[in-house]
Amino acid sequence: MKVELLKCLYDPKEYKDTGFIEFAFAGRSNAGKSSLINTLYMCNIAKVSKTPGKTKTINLFKIEDKYAIVDLPGYGYAKVPIEAMLHWKKLIEHYITHSKRLNTVFILTDIRRGIEEEELMLMDWLKSLKKDYKIVFTKIDKISKNELVKTKEKYATIEPFYFSALTKEGRKDILKYIGEKCLLKK
């Protein structure tokens, strides 16, 4: 797939309409956003690190001249000053409230954590803005098949995606969802 960096946003006011339908990826600083993005597009466009908080800007990428993906800074634990975290929050809030082309926010969460208070707050806020979102449980290779079955039963009503960067499980499902959303917008 052809992937091209459009822009890295350091300031909320830098956001300009991309001209493409947009899909954003949000989640905790250690949820695996960069790994998911790199696995989806089979390249190393997003920085992967064992240290949470490496994504410090909003990174917009154009995919195949068809749509854009938006890599948002993580929330939650990161070894950065509180001022940096507050700046990221402002960046994210401005982008989500001002993008006219944002189709879906993928909320990534480590399957071992499940959906916690921060994810619930984000979901409620997105609902209040009438923004679509999908939950993506990451790192499914880190739990047993039995635990995965139990998790799928628990969250069946919200129809989340289940993803592993290691095995690439869930990759096709997420790309299919994005493809279908792009077709609907034409």
What is this structure's SSE topology?
Blueprint: E1 3-9, E2 21-27, H1 33-41, E3 58-63, E4 67-71, H2 82-98, E5 102-110, H3 117-128, E6 132-138, H4 145-154, E7 161-162, H5 171-185
Parallel strand pairs: 2-4, 2-5, 5-6, 6-7
Antiparallel strand pairs: 1-3, 3-4
Radius of gyration (Å): 16 Å
Question: How many domains, in number, for the residues?
Answer: 1
| SSE sequence, one letter per element | EEHEEHEHEHEH
Name the strands of the widest sheet in spatial order: 1-3-4-2-5-6-7
Low-confidence stretches: none
Mean pLDDT score: 88
Regarding CATH, which class? Answer: Alpha Beta
In the CATH hierarchy, the third-tier topology is known as Rossmann fold
Helix content: 25-40%
CATH architectural arrangement:
3-Layer(aba) Sandwich
- Biggest sheet statistics: 7 strands, mixed
End-to-end C-alpha gap: 20 Å
Approximate strand percentage: 15-25%
Name the CATH superfamily classification.
P-loop containing nucleotide triphosphate hydrolases
Query: How many helix segments?
Result: 5
Total DSSP E strands: 7
Query: Shape from CA axes?
Result: globular
Structural class by SSE content: alpha/beta
Detailed description of the structure:
- Helix content is 34%, strand content 23%.
- A seven-stranded mixed sheet has the order 1-3-4-2-5-6-7, sandwiched between helices.
- By secondary structure, the chain is an alpha/beta fold.
- The protein has a single domain (3-185), classed as P-loop containing nucleotide triphosphate hydrolases (Rossmann fold, 3-Layer(aba) Sandwich).
